[in-house]
Amino acid sequence: MRTSSFAVVLFISFCLSSSSWVTADNSVYDNFLQCLYNYSQPSNSISGVIYTPSNSSYSSVLQSYIRNLRFNESSTSKPLLIITALEVSHIQIAIGCAKTHGLQMKIRSGGHDYEGVSYVSDVPFFILDMFNLRSINVSIKDETAWVQTGATLGEVYYRAAEHNNSYGFPAGVCPTVGVGGHFSGAGYGNMMRKYGLSVDNIIDAQIIDVNGNLLDRTSMGEDLFWAITGGGGSSFGVVLAYKINLVPVPAIVTVFRVERTLAQNATDIVHRWQEVADKLDNDIFIRMIIDVVNSGGNKTIRASFLSLFLGDTERLLSIMNAGFPELGLQKSDCHEMTWLESVLYWTGFPNGTSVDALLSRVPQVLTHLKRKSDYLKEPIPKEGLEYIFQRMMELVSPVLTFNPYGGRMAEISEFAKPFPHRAGNIAKIQYATNWNEDGVEAADHYINLTRMLYGYMTPFVSKFPREAFLNYRDLDLGINHNGRNSYLEGAVYGIKYFKSNFNRLVQIKTKVDPGNFFRNEQSIPTYPSWRKIFNISLMIKECKENRSESPKEPWTIISPPKDARASITDLSSPRAFCQISPNHSADAVGFNRVWESFESLEY
């Protein structure tokens, strides 16, 4: 499928390309707004879905999908306007006018980006809000569903079960998360050991590209389809919908939550979990959450084990007694229910809550938060656990969540999708800190606590690079200013998120969006010019030689600066480049990864 209805937008760009660049924000805003009105069609006018600051509904529309209160402060940058698209043509016109007038487009589906990247920017911008585009068309005959990116995960699960409760989908356990960001960033849930990631079960997609063409998998080609199923869709276009394969779920599943403190042998149980969680039957998923609680007036560590088992209690107990008896699971700990009900259980709804709650778009909890991620390759020794537990009791607020891998996750190639974290991983780790206080001072305090715990974990997690998960967005890993050093800035975080798949993503990005219209603080960059690539290659070579000759030369940064906004400012300086191409730092991108990415370029 390839539709060319975007001829109107090409016409916009042609007609207005000779207009002079306007630097004043007000003029750009006025011209952009007029452009939207001028090229809107009477049959599906865009005027009714444009919200400007003068509109009484502007604030409520903006705030409705802000899921991190850290980005709902009076000092937070606000969009020039919001477009809540109802039609494909609304998106096409928005792209055409934004290109013409040089405005940044932020694309928001559910607003759960941990760093607010879908609705905050340091440059003039507008939001393309996708929440109206939420249709879900289920075909039980084909065991598939077309899902628009403005839908939520809860709506997907509900609609699938509405047609046949023998089907589910492997995705997140938070029902208010938007499909667009979740799927395009890979998507995972508590069935990933059985069925893999969300993107491992996506078979088609629709995207509107930088030229306004509406494409499906056939017309976009396999490279672009690969990129938007795990590489972040907003770097490549506006993803309109995904076609998913529904997966079978049993009539009865079993869940449990078991908690153990240090006095209840938590250290030994946590250590044993690391040895078995990725090797148990594929039908079982046991998340491990470690936090600090008060017990008898003293701080202690609590390890919570939250599980979904695709089967009944009897079989679950048999598997646990054989593979993880240290947990001491009892029949009384287990609760049987339907798979759809288990989503409510995992989300924390009270027992007996109607599954209709999955259709609500109001989050259960709305707070200020910071998240980071890591990957566990080897079990942390008991001495290491004791060290981390002691540090956590000093910090108090940060929480560690371990999600086990293995099973289907270990069977899929790291190159099958942009998401590369497959075989060889015991678990993915999330660092989570929540707080209720408003203001920058409070945010700085709690963010620093999270960074401290991340630092303490350095010896025990992946290295060279220290890997990270795109959907646990973390601007501490680097920010792209989308200027002349875009590729170098992008490599810093890109190799952590995508490892060697980063270079393929850059190649695809350069082909489909050479002008880098679809960009954000951690988007996929385009390749620089051939001349710049040559100069960069020489600098990398010089840096590498300098490090070999002078191993004590500090060509590294151990950790990002507080504002995480360091960038290269002078490409003529080898030292400047080497500062983002570290050698021995476990917290930094492996130098050889950057070097190899340049050596592999096809000139």
TrEMBL record:
Per the record's keyword annotation, is Transmembrane helix included, yes or no? no
Q: Which domain of life is it from?
A: Eukaryota
What GO molecular function terms would the record report? FAD binding; oxidoreductase activity
Q: Where is the FAD-binding PCMH-type domain?
A: 75-249
Keyword Signal carried by entry: yes
> What PROSITE patterns is this protein classified in?
FAD_PCMH (PS51387)
The protein's UniProt keywords, in alphabetical order, are:
Disulfide bond, FAD, Flavoprotein, Glycoprotein, Signal
Q: Where is the signal peptide?
A: 1-24
Q: What is its cofactor?
A: FAD
Q: Output the PANTHER family linked to this UniProt entry.
A: OS08G0158400 PROTEIN
Q: What is this protein called?
A: FAD-binding PCMH-type domain-containing protein
Q: Which family does it belong to?
A: Belongs to the oxygen-dependent FAD-linked oxidoreductase family.
What species does this protein belong to? Escallonia rubra
